[in-house]
Design brief:
This protein is α+β, with helices and mostly antiparallel strands. 35% of the residues lie in helices and 10% in strands. The relative contact order is 0.23.
Length: 573
């Protein structure tokens, strides 16, 4: 079974789909296309690692409009391939059991102008196979008619390198804009930097103008409005991903051995499940991830706490200051004290490996990782828990996070129309739709070297992990359809899960709004609160200490963030 390769996800593993995982793929890509139709998107799209969504931008959706009317790109889904399971309302993606046979060409006309194109992105510097020995690199340059010059830096170091480059006035033609994709990394003074260093793409991608780039036009609307837009202007191109996060995976074999089911009615059933899954004789624990980031958000969701923020008649309330937060901290502390969580979880948050090895009963992760786990465990059934309301009364509403990778890729500031359209044609190719020839090259590489075919399904080879060069952060659509080669059961289960949760899912209202305080002093303040949460869960501090910390947060940054969000919300509604 194959999927697209993202070097960062491949190396980090658990945060997303692995090499053999389910691809969530999508629709779009060339100078013109067949089988496209204009439409509108009905979708709703949460918070810092210690708030319900467990992994949205630290700035609470640090990109978005702080006032004015955004030129929203027209959505034109690609209809050139027929899914096995249909797309639906609320952002439900289509499902494919196999890659379409005889992939059609999608791009017509030239892409590049024979120029060099520099790419400055987050990645894994120094791991690529050099151009001369890299068929994938060579094939992209030939297809795009450009020379690609990569300037990658590890995610941890990227912010420092970018700020140095900005100070020197030298950034890449394609440059990634840190806005929370890597925790705690938000570019300071974002609106000012965008105006100074990046090209305003609104005239080229706003409204019907995007139809010149049908791959980009197929990217879901929420990815544009909640990630790529700041102050009413489109400043970048983001990689769309499912907003549903987190999901809690389980292995049916482990559940059967423990004598439990996935049917939970309330919080007590959840606690009982943790107890039943913990077996110290076999060194198995219910969970092994950092509880503050991966367990606390689940309990907050069950308690129906604000999804990072809540809005009522234009007034914002943070999850930090909610009654549910104190209650959820207390319940998480009980599970920790009872010994149901791997003891090293606060030191080293578990990756997927212990779950695969049967040492963890549950594994919480972002939605694409479900397919990755299933691919690693082909002889088992990997399911997902539907969390109940803590006090009973049915399933808890699922929280939604950022509808894509939070760090978009912008174009270096220029007034050269020819250069802008050349770079947008390249981005358009990167956003080629699932089922097309261009999608295969952009996401799998060269057949016979980077992937082989099992029927029509691409299967990645070992070479692909070092050959991969496509800057998929710039609109790559490997995460907007459900696809697992030959695994109809998994695709059907994922499609049904999303069909169930999306209609009632709760968005974070701060997404798509910009708060300078959240992106600045709010990052350090959130880290301080996170440390207090760690202490409360481990019994070193009390919920009274938490209340004191929240009061300090509110005075130092929280009330200012609230005011900025409220002003931005009022301006855009």
């Amino acid at each position: 079974m194959g999927t697209t390769i993202d070097r960062r996800r491949f190396l980090t593993g658990a945060a997303g789909a692995t090499l053999l995982g389910t691809a969530l793929v999508a629709c779009g890509g060339g100078n013109s296309s067949a089988g496209s139709q204009s439409t509108t998107e009905s979708t709703s799209s949460g918070g810092a690692a210690s708030t319900p969504a467990g992994g949205s931008t630290p700035s609470g959706g640090g990109s978005g409009s702080s006032g004015g009317t955004s030129a929203v790109p027209t959505l034109v889904p690609y209809t050139g391939v027929t899914p096995d399971l249909p797309a639906g309302d609320h952002g439900l993606p289509p499902g494919f059991f196999h890659f379409p046979a005889n992939p059609p060409a999608f791009v017509t006309g030239p892409v590049g102008n024979g120029d060099s194109v520099s790419i400055m992105i987050e990645g894994t510097a120094g791991t690529q196979t050099p151009r001369g020995d890299n068929p994938w690199w060579q094939a992209l340059e030939k297809a795009w008619n450009v020379k690609l010059v990569f300037n990658e830096t590890t995610n941890q170091e990227y912010m420092d390198k970018l700020q140095t480059s900005i100070a020197g006035g030298q950034i890449g033609d394609f440059t990634q804009i840190p806005n929370g994709g890597f925790p705690g990394k938000v570019l300071p003074q974002l609106p000012q930097v965008l105006e100074t260093m990046f090209t305003d793409l609104t005239p080229y991608l706003g409204g019907d103008a995007i139809k010149d780039y049908p791959g980009l036009a197929s990217i879901p609307t929420s990815t544009w409005t909640q990630i790529a837009t700041v102050n009413g202007k489109i400043w970048g191109i983001a990689q769309p991903r499912p907003a549903v996060t987190p999901v809690v995976n389980y292995r049916q074999s482990i559940f059967t051995k423990a004598g439990v089911t996935a049917d939970l009615n309330d919080g007590q059933d959840f606690v009982n499940l943790f107890k039943a899954l913990t077996d110290l004789k076999t060194n198995r624990y219910a969970m092994g991830q950092l509880p503050t980031d991966w367990l606390l958000p689940l309990i907050l969701e069950m308690m129906e706490a604000p999804n990072d923020w809540a809005v009522d008649n234009g007034k914002f309330t943070s999850a930090y200051e909610s009654d549910q937060m104190s209650q959820a901290l207390a319940e998480t502390a009980k599970l920790w004290k009872a010994g149901y969580i791997q003891p090293d979880s606060f030191v080293t948050s578990a990756t997927l490996s212990p779950f695969e090895g049967g040492l963890l009963g549950l594994y919480s992760q972002h939605f694409p990782g479900w397919g990755g786990a299933a691919a690693q465990l082909p002889d088992d059934t990997v399911g997902v828990l539907r969390l109940p309301k803590w006090n009973g009364g049915g399933p808890a509403p699922q929280y939604l996070g950022v509808p894509g990778y939070a760090d978009p890729v912008g174009l270096k500031k220029t007034t050269d129309e020819k250069r802008i359209t050349e770079l947008l044609r390249i981005a358009n190719y990167i956003a080629a739709p699932f089922g097309t020839q261009e999608y295969l090259l952009a996401n799998y590489g060269v057949v016979g070297h980077d992937y082989t075919l099992n029927g029509a399904d691409p299967v990645s080879t070992k070479a692909a992990t070092s050959d991969v060069v496509t800057p998929v952060y710039a609109g790559g659509q490997s995460s907007t359809v459900l696809y697992a080669a030959g695994n109809q059961k998994l695709v059907t289960a994922q499609h049904q899960f999303l069909s169930d949760v999306l209609p009632t899912a709760i968005p974070d209202p701060s997404l798509g709004l910009y708060s300078a305080t959240a992106a600045g002093a709010g990052v350090a303040a959130a880290a301080t609160l996170h440390n207090v949460q760690n202490d409360v869960i481990q019994g070193r501090k009390s919920t009274s200490d938490w209340a004191t910390a929240v009061a300090s947060w509110r005075t130092s940054v929280g009330d200012k963030m609230r005011s900025e969000y409220e002003d931005a919300y009022a301006a855009s509604h």
